[in-house]
Amino acid sequence: MKRIARSLLAVLVSASAFAPAWGQGSPWPSRPIKIITPTPVGVGSDIFARAYADRLSRALQTPVVVENRPGALASIGTDAVAKAAPDGYTILFSTSNPFTMTPFLLSKMPYDAKSDLVPVTQALKGGSFILANAAVPVKNIPELVALAKKEPGRISFASYGSGTTSHLGFELFQEAAGIELLHVPYKQSAAPDLMAGQVQLGFEPPVSALPNIKSGRVKALAYTGSKRSAALPNVPTLSESYPGVEVFTWLGFWVPARTPQAIVDRLNKEIVAITHSPEMGRLLSDAGLDPIGSTPAEAAAVIDREAQAMSRLIKAKNIRID
Predict the structure, then answer these.
(1) Closest Cα to residue 246, out of 271, 222, 282, 211?
(2) Ramachandran angles phi, psi of 66, nearest 5°
(3) Contact of 216 with 195, CB cutoff 8 Å
(4) pTM
């Protein structure tokens, strides 16, 4: 019996040496992977979620599908991933907002931004354009500031809702310029009202701003990135008027906490390779975005810094959503 027991133990030890690194019964991935994005279909990160899904399915040789879970400042979709099994089959693709802004805007959070999810990588980033309706009698930021100082609180700006990047971006601008604008929050895009003149200013990422700028329906006053957008190099940055005032949006990937490190590392490797591929490069360039492709540790450090900065701003402005 002792010899049999020793033989069985040897077999078990030998078998464990060939088991998958992430401890599952079959190699990962062995079934479809789901990317959850907290935006509606065709809006924001959804466009690039589908681009990554297509390329990841080829890289991993398994179906990768996108599921949209918008609402509640992106907390609904983020929470769905936070509560998913940590097995590499449910991934979040989102801006950093659910980790750097939403926790300070909602009094009750369904997930813990620090402990329920871990970053895989920062994928891509970009600034936004400060837009004006064609009838607004300004051509640049200095002219806008001069007009706003003559008419405090009368020039309106649209956002995607209180506490969103578009709202806080305008708050930073007002603070730097010493002006007062009228905030008009929207639940969806304000582009139709901006073009119609029902609201005078807007804050849009390149992917949604460029078609309307090029058609002449709106005009770009500034770009909020650290350098001028390659898509519109004649448009100055906001920081050219107010050094240090930059507003970025970046998109990245997260997985539930306790996802095996081997899976996190594999996802990071494949996503970074896709991000820096010529095919994705052309797509990003057309949208006015820049590739990043950071390590999980680098992404985590950026999230911590941004969360501290956003926390201070939101508290200083006394912005609450509920």
Answers:
(1) 222
(2) -110, 135
(3) no
(4) 0.80
* In contact, 194 and 131? CB cutoff 8 Å: yes
Measured between alpha carbons, how far is 82 from 131 in angstroms, rounded to an integer?
A: 36
DSSP assignments along 93-107, one per residue: EEESHHHHTHHHH-S
Which residues is 237 bridged to in the sheet?
223
Question: In this predicted structure, what is the pLDDT of residue 25?
Answer: 60
pLDDT of residue 181: 97
Q: Is the peptide bond before 29 cis (omega within 30 degrees of 0)?
A: yes
SS3 292: coil
Question: 3: buried, middle or exposed (CB in 10 Å: 19+, 13-18, 0-12)?
Answer: exposed
**8 A C-beta contact, residue 133 and residue 194:** yes
Residues 248, 77: contact at Cβ < 8 Å? no
Q: Cβ distance 321 to 314 under 8 Å?
A: no
Query: What per-residue confidence (pLDDT) applies to 309?
Result: 86
**Per-chain mean pLDDT for the chain:** 89
DSSP 25-66: SSPSPSS-EEEEESS-TTSTHHHHHHHHHHHHHHHHTS-EEE
In whole angstroms, give the CA distance from residue 320 to residue 314.
8
